[in-house]
Design goal:
Layout (H helix, E strand, L loop, with lengths): L1 H12 L8 H14 L7 H4 E2 L6 H6 L17 E3 L4 H13 L3 E5 L16 E5 L6 E4 L4 E5 L4 H11 L3 E2 L10 H6 L7 H4 L6 E7 L5 E2 L1 H11 L10 E8 L1 E2 L4 E9 L4 H11 L7 E11 L6 E11 L3 H11 L10 E4 L1 H8 L22 E9 L5 H14 L3 E6 L22 E9 L4 H17 L30 H12 L2 H12 L17
Parallel strand pairs: 2-4, 3-4
Antiparallel strand pairs: 1-2, 5-6, 6-10, 7-11, 8-9, 8-10, 12-14, 12-15, 13-14, 13-17, 16-18, 17-18
Helix pairs in contact: 13-14
The structure holds flavin-adenine dinucleotide (FAD) and 2-acetamido-2-deoxy-beta-D-glucopyranose (7 copies).
Length: 529
């Protein structure tokens, strides 16, 4: 027993465990599962140690950022892939007993790999088997298990109805567990708000391994897991969601303009009118440095991608009133069902059938990436935009994405959920760099570019706090290596993600997980006793 005891003390001492003890950890974990009523026959199929030949495949299956798929990336001591709820409960209890850190993974889309990477000895609790989606059509609700992917949800909704939808993200392979608990959003944001504005119940496993529903967990914890991140509070098993109405036909467009085609004028009009748009309209703008000629001269191009919950006759007059310089015409528009629009947002061509939404393999492949975020309250003037374009050309690779807010978002109070970026926000900025080259030098350069552009944007975005979107995980804005963070450490990133809601999250954390078992690099810290 002695070596095991020592091993499990290592995280407390802040040291890394030697890899040779993987089999000891495995055996002891397997025994613990059986003591917790998991049939012995079920254990080998749900538990992977690094010595298992399938370990890498199971680990990599939901790695969605190749920055965290290197030999230097710390690997878990165990991956647990439970097939039912009792096995998830036992995994929580046994991870605690083993003194290991728990990392829960649903879809693996965390931009910093926080669901499957840790500096400490850790267990990945991988929920991909928990993907049931169960509808109750009379009440227009559904229970969605955490390991279901958004594309699976959209497809399943479309099989029930062509006039119901769910307001969530545009990438079909994002997992429900991370996305909803982090306050997801998508093209329905201006009409219907966030994912968390449509959650009516939940099922969570607490630090004692107990399964709780909304009644059992109480309104505080239920509030916290609607945008405060699931990983600080427990393991989310499922959310019950309200579906929202959409028309049978929606209209989408994707148009590009270069800097010389009045891009900055169009962006001025975009920013100045967002608050006046019909709630049925959502526009995302990509701003990217592009190569314009054979001598590799760079310029900037903007791409406006829009969705209107209505037909072209309703959309065109709005666009010509608010963004006349864009000159949108009927030829730019495509009509389709809402579920087809989710294929459109995911870059599938218009001949693709909705079945493609059930694919668990990302349509755009998996590469290296970095994301950051900002919020804008005052339009950036034309000269500011031109200087931004110059900066983006100078940097060369990093792009920006503007996601329009307003509409329903402005009507929901900041403390209704942990997600605080509501009234007064014109749009959110995502900083985006993607690459496929494996050289460390390029990785350094691109990460550096994102930081430089973020610094450049300081005068144009929110301050005190400089706000950031929790689901656009960004470790640069503050973090701790082992999640054993003090209130002051947690506050550094906590107020950027949650503003004044941070303190309420800390109180709830202190009540439900005082020993900080559920911790990550950016989790909510409990207050000391
Ligand atoms: C290609 C791509 C497109 C995206 N598009 C959008 C978008 O349109 N809108 C948007 O809002 N966001 C978007 N995101 C961000 C996305 O919402 C977040 O990364 C989200 O957290 C991913 O959820 P996941 O389950 O896939 O991630 P995971 O990596 O599995 O988890 C993310 C975090 O949540 C925790 N977690 C996961 N499951 C559970 C659970 N069951 N219980 C407790 N904690 C859990 C993890 O431990 C981790 O801390 C996108 C991300 C990518 C990579
Ligand atoms: C967490 O940090 C506190 C204070 O720094 C320390 O006393 C405690 O031992 C740490 N716990 C772990 C598990 O690292
Ligand atoms: C991750 O790295 C391993 C080992 O180099 C490789 O086999 C695997 O294909 C990589 N995963 C992805 C998604 O590229
Ligand atoms: C999913 O649903 C099926 C059919 O109702 C059921 O047999 C199975 O146990 C469910 N799985 C989980 C993990 O809840
Ligand atoms: C590229 O830019 C340079 C400097 O602005 C200019 O002199 C040159 O003509 C451009 N090349 C092309 C092919 O337009
Ligand atoms: C685009 O900009 C040019 C040059 O400033 C101007 O002449 C033209 O009228 C603008 N076009 C529109 C549609 O605003
Ligand atoms: C589908 O895309 C093709 C090629 O881009 C285009 O020609 C066609 O008009 C589109 N069909 C519809 C219905 O929009
Ligand atoms: C990477 O950077 C190092 C040091 O900064 C340099 O010595 C090396 O030549 C670079 N490698 C490449 C492939 O550019």
């Amino acid at each position: 027993m002695l070596p095991i005891v020592l091993l499990f003390m290592l995280p407390i001492l802040g040291l890394a465990a030697p890899a040779a003890d993987d089999s000891i950890i495995y055996e002891s974990f397997a025994k613990c599962l059986q003591r917790n009523r998991i049939p012995a026959a079920q254990v080998p199929a749900m538990l992977y140690s690094p010595t298992n030949p399938a370990f890498s495949d199971v680990l990599n299956a939901y790695v969605r950022n190749l920055r965290f798929n290197t030999t230097a990336t710390k690997k878990p001591s165990i991956i647990a892939t439970p097939v039912d709820i009792p096995a998830v409960q036992a995994t929580v209890v046994c991870t605690k007993e083993a003194g290991l850190q728990l990392k829960t993974r649903s879809g693996g889309h965390d931009y910093e790999g926080i669901s499957y990477v840790s500096a400490n000895p850790f267990v990945i609790l991988d929920l991909f088997h928990l993907r049931n989606i169960t509808f109750d059509m009379p009440t227009q609700t559904a229970w969605v298990q955490a390991g279901a992917l958004l594309g699976e949800l959209y497809y399943a909704i479309s099989k029930q109805s062509n006039v119901l939808a769910f307001p969530a993200g545009v990438c079909p392979t994002v997992g429900a567990g991370g996305h909803i608990s982090g306050g997801g959003y998508g093209p329905l944001i201006r009409k219907h708000g966030l994912t968390v504005d449509h959650v009516v119940d939940a099922q969570i496993i607490d630090v004692n391994g107990k399964v709780l529903d909304r009644k059992g967990m109480g309104e505080d914890l239920f509030w916290a897991i609607r945008g405060g991140g699931g990983a600080s509070f427990g393991v989310i098993l499922a959310y019950k969601i309200n579906l929202v109405p959409v028309p049978p036909v929606v209209t989408v467009f994707n148009v590009q303009r270069t800097r010389t085609q009045n891009a900055s004028d169009i962006l001025v009009q975009y920013q100045n009118t967002i608050e006046k748009w019909d709630d049925n309209l959502f526009i995302r703008v990509l701003i990217q440095p592009v190569t314009v000629d054979k001598s590799s001269n760079k310029s900037v191009r903007i791409t406006l991608i829009g969705e209107f919950l209505g037909n072209p006759d309703g959309l065109l007059p709005l666009m010509n009133t608010h963004l006349p310089t864009l000159g949108l015409t009927k030829a730019d528009l495509q009509e389709m069902s809402w579920v087809e629009s989710m294929l459109f947002w995911a870059n599938y061509d218009n001949a693709t059938s909705p079945e493609a939404l059930n694919s668990r393999v990302p349509h755009d492949g998996v590469g290296f990436l970095k994301r950051k975020s900002d919020y804008v309250q005052k339009p950036i003037p034309k000269e500011g935009l031109e200087s931004l374009f110059d900066k983006m050309i100078e940097l060369g690779k990093v792009g920006l994405v503007f996601n329009s807010y307003g509409g329903k978002m402005s009507q929901i109070p900041e403390d209704a959920t942990p997600f605080p970026h509501r009234a007064g926000i014109l749009y959110k900025i995502q900083y985006s760099v993607n690459w496929h080259d494996t050289s460390d030098n390029l990785t350094k350069e691109y990460l550096g570019e994102a930081v430089k552009l973020h610094e450049f944007m300081t005068p144009f975005v929110t301050s005190n706090p400089r706000q950031a979107f929790f689901n656009y995980r960004d470790i640069d804005i503050g973090s701790t290596t082992n999640g054993n963070n003090t209130y002051e450490e947690g506050k550094v990133y906590g107020v950027k993600y949650f503003k004044n809601n941070f303190d309420r999250l800390v109180k709830i954390k202190t009540a439900v997980d005082p020993t900080n078992f559920f911790r990550t690099e950016q989790s909510i810290p409990p207050l000391p006793k």
